[in-house]
Specification:
Belongs to the NadD family. Helices cover 38% and strands 13% of the residues. By secondary structure, the chain is α/β, with parallel strands linked by helices. Bound molecules: adenosine-5'-triphosphate (ATP) and nicotinate mononucleotide.
Length: 188
């Protein structure tokens, strides 16, 4: 599951857990982006990586990969999947996206090759419509999951405005945000 995770929140974790259960996955690898070229002004990748480590630590089936943050340049999923394929040549790969991310996939780099490297799972997300019609049916699935209307944007705005993010993000992530003074000085 790729994401900017700025910060990781319970919507991400529920999505990963639901997909793992539905597709009987051995593990879910969270891959924080290095340079998400469509998102300006993200927090340092090490902070986003460490929050992802903290958030996933209690689940033995959840892992975190550094492939995107250790690669220079803009982050493209085609590179993510090639790197993970190289590390795990025998794995059957699934790439998890929310409804909004899946809808933009036609604009992603080398989109036609993506289907060869992984099965894509689009999960439902409140406020976002999604359809998988027209995509390769054996390589793309749609999964309805419990609706959690949480976004990283909203979490950042809440911290900036002095509102709590308890129970929107895991406890360890609340503590990380506080200790490292993240999101206090947003301009918006
Ligand atoms: N509440 C949610 N339910 C389902 N999928 C989600 C949810 N939040 C995020 N996702 C999906 O998780 C992936 C990573 O999301 P990302 O890290 O960009 O979080 P975000 O909440 O969308 O962030 P931002 O608000 O900064 O755009 C994307 O595929 C996104 O669609
Ligand atoms: O490959 C691309 O061109 C591409 C364009 C936009 C997003 N992605 C990937 O989609 C995932 C979710 O991205 P985001 O920006 O919604 O956090 C993350 O793994 C990104 O690297 C990938």
């Amino acid at each position: 599951m790729g994401g900017t995770f700025d910060p990781i929140h319970n919507g991400h974790l529920v999505a990963a857990s639901e997909v793992a259960q539905h597709f009987d996955l051995d593990e879910v690898v969270f891959v924080p982006t290095g340079e998400p070229y469509l998102k300006p002004d993200v927090s340092p990748s090490e902070d986003r990586y460490l929050m992802t480590v903290v958030a996933t630590a209690s689940n033995p089936r959840f892992k975190v990969s550094r492939v995107d943050i250790d690669r220079d340049g803009p982050t493209y999923t085609i590179d993510t999947l090639r790197d993970i394929r190289e590390q795990q040549p025998d794995a059957d790969l699934f790439f998890i996206t929310g409804a909004d991310a899946f809808t933009s996939i036609v604009e992603w780099k080398d989109v036609d090759e993506l289907w060869e490297l992984a099965h894509f799972v689009a999960v439902t997300r409140p406020g976002h419509q999604v359809s998988i019609t027209g995509y390769p049916p054996d390589r793309v699935s749609l999964l309805e999951i419990p609706a959690l209307a949480i976004s990283s944007t909203d979490c950042r705005a809440r911290v900036s405005a002095g509102y709590p993010v308890w129970y929107l993000v895991p406890d360890g992530v609340v503590q990380y945000i506080s200790k490292h003074d993240l999101y206090r000085r947003l301009s918006a």
